[in-house]
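Propose amino acids for all 579 sites.
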Protein backbone atom coordinates (compact mmCIF):
# COMPACT_ATOMS: atom_id res chain seq x y z
CA UNK A 1 0.00 0.00 0.00
CA UNK A 2 2.76 2.44 0.88
CA UNK A 3 4.51 1.76 -2.43
CA UNK A 4 1.25 2.30 -4.29
CA UNK A 5 0.65 5.66 -2.61
CA UNK A 6 4.22 6.75 -3.35
CA UNK A 7 3.75 5.78 -6.99
CA UNK A 8 0.49 7.74 -7.19
CA UNK A 9 2.12 10.79 -5.61
CA UNK A 10 5.02 10.54 -8.02
CA UNK A 11 2.65 10.28 -11.00
CA UNK A 12 0.63 13.26 -9.74
CA UNK A 13 3.77 15.34 -9.27
CA UNK A 14 4.97 14.40 -12.75
CA UNK A 15 1.59 15.35 -14.22
CA UNK A 16 1.61 18.69 -12.40
CA UNK A 17 5.15 19.36 -13.63
CA UNK A 18 4.05 18.61 -17.20
CA UNK A 19 1.15 21.03 -16.80
CA UNK A 20 3.51 23.73 -15.54
CA UNK A 21 5.81 23.08 -18.48
CA UNK A 22 2.91 23.36 -20.93
CA UNK A 23 1.82 26.61 -19.30
CA UNK A 24 5.40 27.98 -19.26
CA UNK A 25 6.11 27.24 -22.93
CA UNK A 26 2.68 28.44 -24.02
CA UNK A 27 2.98 31.64 -22.02
CA UNK A 28 6.33 32.40 -23.73
CA UNK A 29 5.06 31.29 -27.17
CA UNK A 30 7.88 28.76 -27.47
CA UNK A 31 6.04 26.19 -29.68
CA UNK A 32 4.94 28.89 -32.14
CA UNK A 33 8.44 30.40 -32.33
CA UNK A 34 10.06 26.97 -32.76
CA UNK A 35 7.65 26.15 -35.55
CA UNK A 36 8.25 29.53 -37.19
CA UNK A 37 12.07 29.31 -37.16
CA UNK A 38 12.07 25.69 -38.37
CA UNK A 39 9.79 26.53 -41.30
CA UNK A 40 11.85 29.62 -42.24
CA UNK A 41 15.11 27.74 -41.94
CA UNK A 42 13.82 24.92 -44.17
CA UNK A 43 12.87 27.36 -46.95
CA UNK A 44 16.08 29.45 -46.64
CA UNK A 45 18.41 26.44 -46.25
CA UNK A 46 21.25 28.29 -44.49
CA UNK A 47 24.78 26.87 -44.59
CA UNK A 48 25.21 27.31 -40.83
CA UNK A 49 22.05 25.82 -39.31
CA UNK A 50 22.96 26.44 -35.69
CA UNK A 51 24.27 29.91 -36.44
CA UNK A 52 20.87 30.67 -38.04
CA UNK A 53 19.06 29.38 -34.93
CA UNK A 54 21.40 31.38 -32.68
CA UNK A 55 20.72 34.63 -34.52
CA UNK A 56 16.96 33.99 -34.48
CA UNK A 57 16.70 33.29 -30.78
CA UNK A 58 19.06 36.17 -29.92
CA UNK A 59 16.62 38.52 -31.67
CA UNK A 60 13.88 37.24 -29.34
CA UNK A 61 15.94 37.67 -26.16
CA UNK A 62 15.22 40.42 -23.64
CA UNK A 63 17.09 43.65 -24.39
CA UNK A 64 20.34 44.06 -22.44
CA UNK A 65 20.33 46.30 -19.39
CA UNK A 66 23.17 47.77 -17.36
CA UNK A 67 24.04 45.49 -14.46
CA UNK A 68 27.23 46.96 -13.07
CA UNK A 69 29.41 50.04 -13.44
CA UNK A 70 32.98 49.69 -12.16
CA UNK A 71 35.46 52.51 -11.62
CA UNK A 72 39.20 52.52 -11.05
CA UNK A 73 42.09 54.95 -10.93
CA UNK A 74 44.46 54.93 -13.93
CA UNK A 75 46.92 57.43 -15.44
CA UNK A 76 46.69 59.82 -18.37
CA UNK A 77 49.42 60.70 -20.88
CA UNK A 78 51.04 63.11 -18.39
CA UNK A 79 51.21 60.53 -15.61
CA UNK A 80 48.34 62.19 -13.75
CA UNK A 81 45.61 60.15 -12.04
CA UNK A 82 42.30 59.94 -13.86
CA UNK A 83 39.15 57.80 -13.89
CA UNK A 84 38.34 54.71 -15.91
CA UNK A 85 34.88 53.12 -16.07
CA UNK A 86 33.71 49.63 -17.10
CA UNK A 87 30.16 48.75 -18.14
CA UNK A 88 28.75 45.24 -17.65
CA UNK A 89 25.28 44.32 -18.92
CA UNK A 90 22.89 41.43 -18.49
CA UNK A 91 22.43 39.88 -21.93
CA UNK A 92 20.65 36.58 -22.59
CA UNK A 93 20.48 36.09 -18.84
CA UNK A 94 24.25 36.38 -18.31
CA UNK A 95 26.50 39.20 -17.13
CA UNK A 96 28.92 40.36 -19.82
CA UNK A 97 31.54 43.13 -19.93
CA UNK A 98 30.77 45.52 -22.79
CA UNK A 99 33.05 48.54 -22.68
CA UNK A 100 35.82 50.48 -20.95
CA UNK A 101 36.43 54.23 -21.21
CA UNK A 102 38.93 56.57 -19.61
CA UNK A 103 38.27 60.24 -18.87
CA UNK A 104 40.90 62.72 -20.04
CA UNK A 105 42.08 64.96 -17.22
CA UNK A 106 42.07 68.73 -17.45
CA UNK A 107 44.63 71.26 -16.21
CA UNK A 108 42.98 74.53 -15.23
CA UNK A 109 46.24 76.41 -14.68
CA UNK A 110 48.93 77.13 -17.32
CA UNK A 111 52.29 75.37 -17.20
CA UNK A 112 54.13 78.32 -15.62
CA UNK A 113 52.15 78.46 -12.37
CA UNK A 114 54.12 78.68 -9.09
CA UNK A 115 55.18 75.41 -7.49
CA UNK A 116 52.78 75.86 -4.54
CA UNK A 117 49.77 76.11 -6.88
CA UNK A 118 50.95 73.13 -8.88
CA UNK A 119 51.28 71.00 -5.75
CA UNK A 120 47.86 72.13 -4.55
CA UNK A 121 46.33 71.20 -7.91
CA UNK A 122 48.01 67.78 -7.85
CA UNK A 123 46.64 67.12 -4.37
CA UNK A 124 43.16 68.25 -5.43
CA UNK A 125 43.32 66.07 -8.56
CA UNK A 126 44.22 63.01 -6.47
CA UNK A 127 41.35 63.62 -4.07
CA UNK A 128 38.87 64.24 -6.89
CA UNK A 129 39.91 61.08 -8.73
CA UNK A 130 39.43 58.99 -5.60
CA UNK A 131 36.03 60.58 -5.00
CA UNK A 132 34.96 59.85 -8.60
CA UNK A 133 36.00 56.19 -8.34
CA UNK A 134 34.07 55.82 -5.08
CA UNK A 135 31.00 57.43 -6.62
CA UNK A 136 31.07 55.09 -9.63
CA UNK A 137 31.48 51.96 -7.51
CA UNK A 138 28.79 53.05 -5.08
CA UNK A 139 25.82 55.25 -5.85
CA UNK A 140 26.24 55.42 -9.63
CA UNK A 141 26.25 51.67 -10.20
CA UNK A 142 23.10 51.42 -8.07
CA UNK A 143 21.39 54.27 -9.95
CA UNK A 144 22.19 52.82 -13.40
CA UNK A 145 21.38 49.19 -12.67
CA UNK A 146 18.58 48.09 -15.02
CA UNK A 147 18.87 51.13 -17.34
CA UNK A 148 18.94 50.60 -21.13
CA UNK A 149 22.55 51.24 -22.31
CA UNK A 150 21.32 52.38 -25.73
CA UNK A 151 19.37 55.28 -24.21
CA UNK A 152 22.25 57.75 -23.86
CA UNK A 153 20.11 60.68 -22.75
CA UNK A 154 18.49 58.75 -19.91
CA UNK A 155 21.85 57.49 -18.69
CA UNK A 156 23.42 60.96 -18.73
CA UNK A 157 20.37 62.46 -17.02
CA UNK A 158 20.62 59.88 -14.22
CA UNK A 159 24.33 60.56 -13.76
CA UNK A 160 24.09 64.37 -13.75
CA UNK A 161 20.98 64.39 -11.54
CA UNK A 162 22.82 62.34 -8.92
CA UNK A 163 25.91 64.57 -9.06
CA UNK A 164 23.81 67.74 -8.85
CA UNK A 165 22.00 66.30 -5.83
CA UNK A 166 25.26 65.41 -4.08
CA UNK A 167 26.72 68.83 -4.85
CA UNK A 168 23.64 70.57 -3.45
CA UNK A 169 23.93 68.51 -0.25
CA UNK A 170 27.64 69.30 0.06
CA UNK A 171 27.03 73.02 -0.53
CA UNK A 172 24.28 73.06 2.09
CA UNK A 173 26.53 71.32 4.60
CA UNK A 174 29.30 73.83 3.95
CA UNK A 175 26.85 76.73 4.36
CA UNK A 176 25.54 75.32 7.64
CA UNK A 177 29.09 75.02 8.97
CA UNK A 178 29.85 78.59 7.90
CA UNK A 179 26.78 79.95 9.69
CA UNK A 180 27.69 77.92 12.76
CA UNK A 181 31.17 79.46 12.85
CA UNK A 182 29.71 82.96 12.51
CA UNK A 183 27.30 82.29 15.36
CA UNK A 184 30.13 81.04 17.58
CA UNK A 185 32.17 84.15 16.85
CA UNK A 186 29.24 86.41 17.68
CA UNK A 187 28.70 84.64 20.99
CA UNK A 188 32.28 85.27 22.07
CA UNK A 189 33.08 88.29 24.28
CA UNK A 190 33.71 91.34 22.11
CA UNK A 191 37.28 92.61 22.13
CA UNK A 192 38.14 96.28 22.42
CA UNK A 193 38.85 97.63 18.98
CA UNK A 194 42.43 98.69 18.43
CA UNK A 195 42.97 102.42 18.20
CA UNK A 196 43.65 103.53 14.67
CA UNK A 197 46.82 105.52 14.23
CA UNK A 198 46.40 108.62 12.17
CA UNK A 199 48.86 108.80 9.34
CA UNK A 200 49.93 112.21 8.19
CA UNK A 201 50.81 112.25 4.55
CA UNK A 202 53.76 114.38 3.49
CA UNK A 203 52.89 117.82 2.30
CA UNK A 204 52.25 118.07 -1.36
CA UNK A 205 51.83 114.28 -1.76
CA UNK A 206 48.54 112.48 -2.30
CA UNK A 207 47.47 109.81 0.10
CA UNK A 208 47.84 106.27 -1.14
CA UNK A 209 44.70 105.21 -2.92
CA UNK A 210 43.58 108.75 -3.65
CA UNK A 211 44.47 108.40 -7.32
CA UNK A 212 41.70 107.54 -9.73
CA UNK A 213 41.33 103.76 -9.81
CA UNK A 214 41.41 101.84 -13.07
CA UNK A 215 38.59 99.35 -13.62
CA UNK A 216 40.09 96.06 -14.74
CA UNK A 217 38.03 93.19 -16.15
CA UNK A 218 39.61 90.24 -14.37
CA UNK A 219 39.62 86.69 -15.65
CA UNK A 220 36.86 84.45 -14.36
CA UNK A 221 37.95 82.43 -11.30
CA UNK A 222 38.13 78.68 -11.43
CA UNK A 223 34.60 77.31 -11.41
CA UNK A 224 33.82 75.24 -8.29
CA UNK A 225 32.74 71.76 -9.34
CA UNK A 226 31.72 68.73 -7.33
CA UNK A 227 34.92 66.79 -6.51
CA UNK A 228 33.67 63.54 -8.09
CA UNK A 229 32.33 65.19 -11.26
CA UNK A 230 34.80 63.45 -13.61
CA UNK A 231 32.78 60.27 -13.01
CA UNK A 232 30.16 61.75 -15.35
CA UNK A 233 32.57 61.98 -18.28
CA UNK A 234 34.00 58.48 -17.85
CA UNK A 235 30.65 56.75 -17.35
CA UNK A 236 28.97 58.63 -20.21
CA UNK A 237 31.70 57.55 -22.63
CA UNK A 238 31.65 53.94 -21.43
CA UNK A 239 27.86 53.69 -21.75
CA UNK A 240 27.94 55.19 -25.27
CA UNK A 241 30.43 52.53 -26.33
CA UNK A 242 28.33 49.82 -24.68
CA UNK A 243 25.23 51.09 -26.49
CA UNK A 244 26.98 50.74 -29.85
CA UNK A 245 28.14 47.22 -28.96
CA UNK A 246 24.63 46.20 -27.93
CA UNK A 247 23.18 47.52 -31.21
CA UNK A 248 26.06 45.95 -33.18
CA UNK A 249 26.74 49.14 -35.11
CA UNK A 250 29.82 51.27 -35.58
CA UNK A 251 30.33 53.67 -32.72
CA UNK A 252 30.10 56.79 -34.92
CA UNK A 253 26.76 55.49 -36.27
CA UNK A 254 25.45 55.10 -32.72
CA UNK A 255 26.48 58.70 -31.91
CA UNK A 256 24.80 59.91 -35.11
CA UNK A 257 21.59 58.08 -34.17
CA UNK A 258 21.76 59.46 -30.62
CA UNK A 259 21.89 62.94 -32.17
CA UNK A 260 18.55 62.21 -33.87
CA UNK A 261 20.01 61.59 -37.33
CA UNK A 262 18.52 58.14 -37.80
CA UNK A 263 18.37 58.11 -41.61
CA UNK A 264 21.86 59.48 -42.35
CA UNK A 265 23.49 57.42 -45.10
CA UNK A 266 26.61 59.54 -45.79
CA UNK A 267 29.24 60.97 -43.46
CA UNK A 268 31.73 63.78 -43.95
CA UNK A 269 35.13 63.23 -42.37
CA UNK A 270 36.33 66.11 -40.17
CA UNK A 271 39.44 67.97 -41.32
CA UNK A 272 42.46 67.52 -39.04
CA UNK A 273 43.93 70.62 -37.40
CA UNK A 274 47.34 69.18 -36.61
CA UNK A 275 49.54 70.90 -34.02
CA UNK A 276 53.16 71.34 -35.09
CA UNK A 277 54.59 74.18 -32.96
CA UNK A 278 53.98 75.39 -29.41
CA UNK A 279 55.01 78.57 -27.64
CA UNK A 280 53.03 81.17 -25.70
CA UNK A 281 53.68 82.99 -22.47
CA UNK A 282 54.66 79.93 -20.39
CA UNK A 283 57.30 78.96 -22.97
CA UNK A 284 60.81 80.39 -23.37
CA UNK A 285 61.29 83.20 -25.88
CA UNK A 286 59.73 86.64 -26.11
CA UNK A 287 56.88 85.58 -28.41
CA UNK A 288 53.60 85.17 -26.51
CA UNK A 289 50.77 85.38 -29.05
CA UNK A 290 51.03 81.96 -30.72
CA UNK A 291 50.43 79.31 -28.10
CA UNK A 292 49.88 76.65 -30.73
CA UNK A 293 50.42 76.68 -34.49
CA UNK A 294 48.34 74.15 -36.37
CA UNK A 295 48.32 73.10 -40.02
CA UNK A 296 45.48 71.76 -42.17
CA UNK A 297 45.48 69.91 -45.49
CA UNK A 298 43.68 71.14 -48.58
CA UNK A 299 39.90 70.57 -48.41
CA UNK A 300 38.61 67.90 -50.77
CA UNK A 301 41.54 65.55 -50.30
CA UNK A 302 40.85 62.04 -48.99
CA UNK A 303 41.77 61.89 -45.32
CA UNK A 304 44.66 59.50 -45.90
CA UNK A 305 46.26 61.91 -48.39
CA UNK A 306 45.63 64.92 -46.15
CA UNK A 307 47.19 63.18 -43.13
CA UNK A 308 50.17 62.13 -45.24
CA UNK A 309 50.78 65.74 -46.27
CA UNK A 310 50.53 67.31 -42.81
CA UNK A 311 52.69 64.53 -41.33
CA UNK A 312 55.37 65.19 -43.97
CA UNK A 313 55.29 68.90 -43.09
CA UNK A 314 55.57 68.06 -39.38
CA UNK A 315 58.68 65.95 -39.93
CA UNK A 316 60.17 68.56 -42.28
CA UNK A 317 59.76 71.18 -39.54
CA UNK A 318 61.66 68.87 -37.21
CA UNK A 319 64.49 68.52 -39.72
CA UNK A 320 64.72 72.30 -40.19
CA UNK A 321 64.78 72.90 -36.43
CA UNK A 322 67.49 70.26 -36.03
CA UNK A 323 69.61 71.98 -38.69
CA UNK A 324 69.07 75.42 -37.10
CA UNK A 325 69.13 74.63 -33.37
CA UNK A 326 70.70 71.20 -33.05
CA UNK A 327 69.26 68.41 -30.91
CA UNK A 328 67.25 70.76 -28.60
CA UNK A 329 65.29 71.96 -31.64
CA UNK A 330 63.96 68.44 -32.10
CA UNK A 331 62.44 68.22 -28.60
CA UNK A 332 58.64 67.95 -28.33
CA UNK A 333 56.22 68.69 -25.47
CA UNK A 334 53.30 66.71 -24.01
CA UNK A 335 51.25 67.59 -27.07
CA UNK A 336 53.88 66.18 -29.42
CA UNK A 337 54.69 69.61 -30.89
CA UNK A 338 58.11 71.22 -31.38
CA UNK A 339 58.92 74.10 -29.01
CA UNK A 340 61.63 76.36 -30.48
CA UNK A 341 62.65 79.45 -28.53
CA UNK A 342 61.61 82.30 -30.84
CA UNK A 343 61.05 85.99 -30.14
CA UNK A 344 58.71 86.94 -33.00
CA UNK A 345 55.50 85.46 -34.44
CA UNK A 346 56.96 85.73 -37.94
CA UNK A 347 59.67 83.21 -37.09
CA UNK A 348 57.07 80.49 -36.47
CA UNK A 349 55.08 81.32 -39.58
CA UNK A 350 58.19 81.56 -41.77
CA UNK A 351 59.43 78.21 -40.47
CA UNK A 352 56.19 76.48 -41.44
CA UNK A 353 56.13 78.10 -44.86
CA UNK A 354 59.76 77.10 -45.41
CA UNK A 355 58.91 73.48 -44.54
CA UNK A 356 55.88 73.48 -46.85
CA UNK A 357 57.86 74.97 -49.74
CA UNK A 358 60.72 72.48 -49.22
CA UNK A 359 58.23 69.67 -49.91
CA UNK A 360 57.17 71.38 -53.16
CA UNK A 361 53.81 72.29 -51.67
CA UNK A 362 52.23 75.74 -51.66
CA UNK A 363 51.12 77.55 -48.45
CA UNK A 364 47.53 78.69 -48.83
CA UNK A 365 46.81 76.11 -51.53
CA UNK A 366 48.06 72.75 -50.28
CA UNK A 367 48.61 73.53 -46.60
CA UNK A 368 46.76 76.04 -44.40
CA UNK A 369 47.49 77.46 -40.95
CA UNK A 370 45.47 77.98 -37.78
CA UNK A 371 46.68 79.91 -34.73
CA UNK A 372 45.62 79.13 -31.17
CA UNK A 373 46.26 82.49 -29.50
CA UNK A 374 44.96 81.68 -25.98
CA UNK A 375 44.49 85.42 -25.43
CA UNK A 376 43.41 84.94 -21.81
CA UNK A 377 46.97 83.79 -20.98
CA UNK A 378 48.71 86.88 -22.40
CA UNK A 379 46.37 89.50 -20.91
CA UNK A 380 47.91 91.82 -18.31
CA UNK A 381 45.11 92.89 -15.90
CA UNK A 382 47.16 95.67 -14.31
CA UNK A 383 47.70 97.30 -17.69
CA UNK A 384 44.44 96.21 -19.35
CA UNK A 385 46.42 95.13 -22.40
CA UNK A 386 47.61 92.02 -24.21
CA UNK A 387 51.34 91.31 -24.11
CA UNK A 388 51.80 89.82 -27.59
CA UNK A 389 55.58 89.87 -27.12
CA UNK A 390 57.65 90.61 -24.05
CA UNK A 391 57.47 94.38 -23.71
CA UNK A 392 54.96 94.84 -26.56
CA UNK A 393 51.47 95.62 -25.23
CA UNK A 394 48.29 95.98 -27.29
CA UNK A 395 44.81 97.15 -26.32
CA UNK A 396 41.87 95.02 -27.40
CA UNK A 397 41.15 97.50 -30.21
CA UNK A 398 44.79 97.33 -31.34
CA UNK A 399 44.50 93.55 -31.61
CA UNK A 400 42.05 93.84 -34.53
CA UNK A 401 44.62 95.61 -36.69
CA UNK A 402 47.35 93.33 -35.38
CA UNK A 403 45.50 90.19 -36.52
CA UNK A 404 44.42 91.77 -39.81
CA UNK A 405 48.05 92.62 -40.59
CA UNK A 406 49.26 89.07 -39.84
CA UNK A 407 46.56 87.52 -42.03
CA UNK A 408 47.31 89.92 -44.88
CA UNK A 409 51.00 89.03 -44.74
CA UNK A 410 50.35 85.29 -44.29
CA UNK A 411 47.18 84.50 -46.29
CA UNK A 412 47.57 80.79 -45.51
CA UNK A 413 46.09 81.55 -42.05
CA UNK A 414 42.43 80.52 -42.11
CA UNK A 415 41.58 80.24 -38.39
CA UNK A 416 42.17 82.09 -35.10
CA UNK A 417 41.32 80.29 -31.87
CA UNK A 418 40.62 82.43 -28.79
CA UNK A 419 42.04 85.63 -30.34
CA UNK A 420 40.58 87.72 -27.49
CA UNK A 421 39.29 87.18 -23.96
CA UNK A 422 35.64 86.53 -23.23
CA UNK A 423 35.43 89.86 -21.41
CA UNK A 424 36.22 91.81 -24.60
CA UNK A 425 32.92 90.87 -26.23
CA UNK A 426 32.41 94.16 -28.09
CA UNK A 427 35.85 94.02 -29.69
CA UNK A 428 35.34 90.31 -30.40
CA UNK A 429 32.27 91.27 -32.46
CA UNK A 430 34.29 93.88 -34.36
CA UNK A 431 37.01 91.32 -35.03
CA UNK A 432 34.46 88.88 -36.45
CA UNK A 433 32.99 91.62 -38.63
CA UNK A 434 36.46 92.49 -39.94
CA UNK A 435 37.90 89.00 -40.54
CA UNK A 436 35.20 86.29 -40.55
CA UNK A 437 34.78 86.48 -44.34
CA UNK A 438 38.19 84.89 -44.83
CA UNK A 439 39.13 83.44 -41.45
CA UNK A 440 37.37 81.26 -38.86
CA UNK A 441 37.10 82.94 -35.44
CA UNK A 442 36.78 79.98 -33.07
CA UNK A 443 36.09 80.07 -29.35
CA UNK A 444 37.60 77.42 -27.08
CA UNK A 445 38.53 78.79 -23.66
CA UNK A 446 35.82 81.49 -23.94
CA UNK A 447 33.31 78.62 -23.71
CA UNK A 448 34.97 76.80 -20.80
CA UNK A 449 32.40 74.07 -20.17
CA UNK A 450 30.08 72.42 -22.65
CA UNK A 451 27.25 72.29 -20.09
CA UNK A 452 27.31 76.07 -19.79
CA UNK A 453 27.44 76.44 -23.55
CA UNK A 454 24.29 74.31 -23.85
CA UNK A 455 22.55 76.67 -21.42
CA UNK A 456 23.92 79.99 -22.72
CA UNK A 457 24.86 79.33 -26.35
CA UNK A 458 27.24 81.79 -27.98
CA UNK A 459 25.85 84.64 -25.87
CA UNK A 460 27.59 87.92 -26.69
CA UNK A 461 30.44 86.09 -28.43
CA UNK A 462 29.05 85.24 -31.85
CA UNK A 463 31.80 83.22 -33.51
CA UNK A 464 32.50 81.22 -36.64
CA UNK A 465 32.53 78.15 -34.44
CA UNK A 466 33.27 76.58 -31.08
CA UNK A 467 35.81 74.01 -29.99
CA UNK A 468 34.23 71.38 -27.71
CA UNK A 469 36.17 69.32 -25.17
CA UNK A 470 35.02 66.19 -23.35
CA UNK A 471 36.18 66.28 -19.73
CA UNK A 472 35.03 66.79 -16.12
CA UNK A 473 31.19 66.88 -16.03
CA UNK A 474 30.74 66.93 -19.79
CA UNK A 475 28.62 64.07 -21.12
CA UNK A 476 28.07 62.71 -24.61
CA UNK A 477 24.53 64.09 -24.59
CA UNK A 478 25.79 67.59 -23.82
CA UNK A 479 28.32 67.40 -26.66
CA UNK A 480 25.49 66.40 -29.02
CA UNK A 481 23.28 69.25 -27.78
CA UNK A 482 26.11 71.79 -28.11
CA UNK A 483 26.84 70.65 -31.67
CA UNK A 484 23.15 71.06 -32.51
CA UNK A 485 23.14 74.63 -31.15
CA UNK A 486 26.26 75.48 -33.15
CA UNK A 487 24.72 74.09 -36.33
CA UNK A 488 21.54 76.10 -35.78
CA UNK A 489 23.70 79.24 -35.62
CA UNK A 490 25.24 78.34 -39.01
CA UNK A 491 28.62 77.92 -37.33
CA UNK A 492 31.15 75.09 -37.29
CA UNK A 493 32.11 72.56 -34.60
CA UNK A 494 35.61 71.43 -33.67
CA UNK A 495 36.28 68.51 -31.33
CA UNK A 496 39.44 68.98 -29.26
CA UNK A 497 41.42 66.79 -26.93
CA UNK A 498 42.82 68.14 -23.66
CA UNK A 499 46.44 68.12 -22.39
CA UNK A 500 45.90 65.16 -20.05
CA UNK A 501 44.75 62.88 -22.88
CA UNK A 502 44.50 59.08 -23.00
CA UNK A 503 44.93 56.51 -25.75
CA UNK A 504 41.15 56.06 -26.11
CA UNK A 505 39.89 56.70 -29.65
CA UNK A 506 36.46 57.86 -28.46
CA UNK A 507 36.84 61.43 -29.76
CA UNK A 508 37.42 60.29 -33.35
CA UNK A 509 34.06 58.49 -33.51
CA UNK A 510 32.37 61.32 -31.64
CA UNK A 511 33.61 63.88 -34.18
CA UNK A 512 32.38 61.83 -37.15
CA UNK A 513 29.05 61.06 -35.45
CA UNK A 514 28.15 64.70 -34.72
CA UNK A 515 29.44 65.94 -38.08
CA UNK A 516 32.30 68.08 -36.74
CA UNK A 517 34.13 70.23 -39.27
CA UNK A 518 37.53 70.03 -37.55
CA UNK A 519 39.34 67.82 -35.06
CA UNK A 520 42.21 69.08 -32.92
CA UNK A 521 44.01 66.09 -31.39
CA UNK A 522 47.56 67.45 -31.20
CA UNK A 523 50.64 66.55 -33.23
CA UNK A 524 51.05 63.46 -35.43
CA UNK A 525 53.24 62.01 -32.67
CA UNK A 526 52.82 60.29 -29.27
CA UNK A 527 50.53 57.30 -28.87
CA UNK A 528 47.56 59.09 -27.32
CA UNK A 529 47.43 61.48 -30.31
CA UNK A 530 48.23 59.03 -33.12
CA UNK A 531 45.61 56.53 -31.91
CA UNK A 532 42.84 59.03 -32.69
CA UNK A 533 44.19 59.92 -36.13
CA UNK A 534 44.55 56.20 -36.94
CA UNK A 535 40.96 55.63 -35.89
CA UNK A 536 39.83 58.44 -38.22
CA UNK A 537 41.71 56.76 -41.06
CA UNK A 538 40.00 53.45 -40.30
CA UNK A 539 36.56 55.10 -40.25
CA UNK A 540 37.32 56.83 -43.55
CA UNK A 541 38.32 53.51 -45.11
CA UNK A 542 35.13 51.82 -43.85
CA UNK A 543 32.88 54.61 -45.15
CA UNK A 544 34.64 54.59 -48.51
CA UNK A 545 34.13 50.82 -48.86
CA UNK A 546 30.43 51.23 -48.04
CA UNK A 547 29.95 54.18 -50.40
CA UNK A 548 29.03 56.47 -47.47
CA UNK A 549 31.97 58.88 -47.61
CA UNK A 550 31.62 62.55 -48.52
CA UNK A 551 34.55 64.97 -48.59
CA UNK A 552 34.72 68.70 -47.84
CA UNK A 553 34.55 70.78 -51.00
CA UNK A 554 36.27 73.79 -49.45
CA UNK A 555 36.40 76.15 -46.49
CA UNK A 556 32.99 77.72 -45.88
CA UNK A 557 33.51 80.75 -43.64
CA UNK A 558 30.40 81.69 -41.62
CA UNK A 559 30.31 85.49 -41.82
CA UNK A 560 29.51 86.97 -38.42
CA UNK A 561 28.33 90.56 -38.29
CA UNK A 562 26.93 92.59 -35.36
CA UNK A 563 23.15 92.41 -35.03
CA UNK A 564 21.22 95.17 -36.77
CA UNK A 565 20.10 97.75 -34.17
CA UNK A 566 16.34 98.21 -33.83
CA UNK A 567 14.94 101.31 -35.56
CA UNK A 568 14.62 104.42 -33.40
CA UNK A 569 11.22 105.82 -32.43
CA UNK A 570 11.72 108.81 -34.74
CA UNK A 571 12.46 106.60 -37.71
CA UNK A 572 9.36 104.52 -37.00
CA UNK A 573 7.18 107.63 -36.87
CA UNK A 574 8.62 108.88 -40.19
CA UNK A 575 7.85 105.53 -41.80
CA UNK A 576 4.28 105.66 -40.44
CA UNK A 577 3.86 109.21 -41.78
CA UNK A 578 5.06 108.26 -45.26
CA UNK A 579 2.37 105.60 -45.39
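Proposal:
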Amino acid sequence: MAASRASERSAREFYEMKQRAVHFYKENQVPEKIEEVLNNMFHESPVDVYGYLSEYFESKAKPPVIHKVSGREVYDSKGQPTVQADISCIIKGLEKHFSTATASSYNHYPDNIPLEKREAEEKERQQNTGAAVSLINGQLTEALCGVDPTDQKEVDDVVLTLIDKLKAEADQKEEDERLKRIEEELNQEPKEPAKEEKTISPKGKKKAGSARSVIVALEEPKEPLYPACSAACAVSQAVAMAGAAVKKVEFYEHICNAAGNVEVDVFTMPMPMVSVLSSGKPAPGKQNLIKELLILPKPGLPLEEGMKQVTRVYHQIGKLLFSKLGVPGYYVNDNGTFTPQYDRQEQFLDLVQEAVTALELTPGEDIYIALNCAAHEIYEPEKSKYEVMTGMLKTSEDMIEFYADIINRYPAIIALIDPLRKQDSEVWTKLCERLSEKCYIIGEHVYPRVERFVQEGFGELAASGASLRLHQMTTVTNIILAATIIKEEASITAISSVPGDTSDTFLADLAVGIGATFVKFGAPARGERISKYNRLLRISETLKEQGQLRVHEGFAFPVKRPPTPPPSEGAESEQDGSK
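Residues 152-187 form the longest helix (36 residues). The chain is about 45% helix and 15% strand.
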